[in-house]
Amino acid sequence: MKCNIQEPNSGKMNKSVESQNAGKMNQSVKSHNTGLIGKLASINRIGLITLMIIAMLTSMVYASTGMQRGDIVRFFNSADVAEGEIIDGDVVSIIGGANINGEVRGDVVTIIGNTKISDTASVEGDIVNIIGNVENFGESDSVINIIGSLALGGNTNGDVVQIVGNTELVSGAVVHGDLVSFLGGFENLNGQILGQEITVISFLPDFINRLLPGEYPPLPIILILVIMFSVLAHVFAFIFGSIIVTIFSDQFTSMSESVKEDPGRKFGMGVLLYLVLQVAIVTVGITIIGIPLLLFLIPLSIFIQFIGNLIVKIGIGRKMAKNFDREYGLVGELFIGTLIYLLLDILVAGKPVTFILKFFGMGELAARALDRKEPARVQQPQE
Questions:
Q1: Taking the domains of the chain in order of start, what are their residue ranges?
Q2: Terminal Cα-to-Cα distance of the chain (whole angstroms)
Q3: Is there a contact between 83 and 98 (Cβ–Cβ < 8 Å)?
Q4: Which of 8, 113, 205, 232 is 20 to 30 Å from 256 by CA-CA measure?
């Protein structure tokens, strides 16, 4: 008969062995996890360092090839584009100026300020400058400058239009389109014009350039130009108006006499007629179907306002002639009224006066259209 007798210490020994084995396994698992976490952390560090290196290399390449931005708009400040810089849009400066040494993939527009395009610059769009000087020694499409001097020394792929001021084409400059100069001189210093050269009225350039020596044009040149264009506008209006009043002399004689009768009613009807025309133009203009009607409404509005001014001018001239016991006829009275209108237009405070005066003449037109009386009925004698 066999008996299995276990010693008391055998259970403890087994437990110690099991605990030792479990401890070793836990330590191995922990060491394995620690190694895995360490490897992952090192991989993350390597990846982060790699991304930093890539970012640094990308920024270095980006800086070497040039920075790229969108549109630039500056008010009372200069719009500058550095060499190597790329503007994926337009550059606009209002009362500031523009200095372009890089690439502009849009237009460059400057209002009251100078525009300078260096020989390292390129402008894919147009260069437009209003009241200021332009120096274009780079590459561009068309160049338009109004009031100021223009110097071309680069490659212009489109047309060049200069209004009021000198134009200078230096050696190496090429204009692939036409060059038009209005109220300014033109000097070609071995440049090339592949299109036509058109110069209209070139007696004013030196006078203009003496008034535009600095960074910004002074106020006198603007006032002189306003006066000059006002004179031209009134001269053409007088010539055209003389033809009309000569053809329709009876009608204008009658209307210029009756325009002073019931002035309040005439003024109100003129304002109403003006507003109706403007509302009709806006209403028709916002609809695609009505756009062709603008070709009729806009000239009609301009013509009615022109006739209204003619009536008032003749009425003023007739009143002045009567004060001096004179008779000048319709054309002479129109001439006197035109001179008074011109003096009022030259004065800044007189411009609203001429704008208001036309409402009386327009009201006279409206009153004539509404007050057409039927022929008087012959009364039968009572029996």
A1: 69-211, 219-370
A2: 174
A3: no
A4: 232
The residue behind tokens 């006279």 is 364
DSSP state, 382?
P
Q: Which one-letter DSSP state was computed for residue 375?
A: P
How far apart are alpha carbons 278 and 274 in whole angstroms?
6
Q: What is the DSSP letter of 377?
A: P
The answer to whether 184 and 160 have CB atoms below 8 angstroms apart is no
Grouping H, G, I as helix, E, B as strand and the rest as coil, residue 104 is strand
Tokens describing residue 342: 């011109």
Query: Phi-psi category of 325—alpha, beta or left, where left has phi over 0 and alpha has psi -120 to 50?
Result: left
Q: Give the H/E segment covering residue 320.
A: helix 291-323
Residues forming a β-bridge with 130: 111, 146
Separation of alpha carbons 209 and 184, rounded Å: 10
- List pLDDT tens digits, range 156-210: 888 888 888 788 888 888 898 888 888 777 788 888 888 888 877 665 544 454 5
**Eight-state DSSP code of residue 199:** E
Q: Which two tokens stand for residue 316?
A: 């003023």
* pTM of the predicted structure, to 2 decimals: 0.48
Distance separating alpha carbons of residues 197 and 202, to the nearest angstrom:
13
Q: Residue for token digits 């606009």? A: 92
Average pLDDT over residues 232-242: 91
Task: Yes or no: say if 328 and 317 are a contact pair by the CB < 8 Å rule.
Answer: yes
Q: What would the pLDDT profile of 10-61 be if each residue is shown by its tens digit?
A: 444 444 445 454 454 445 444 444 444 444 344 444 444 444 444 444 333 3
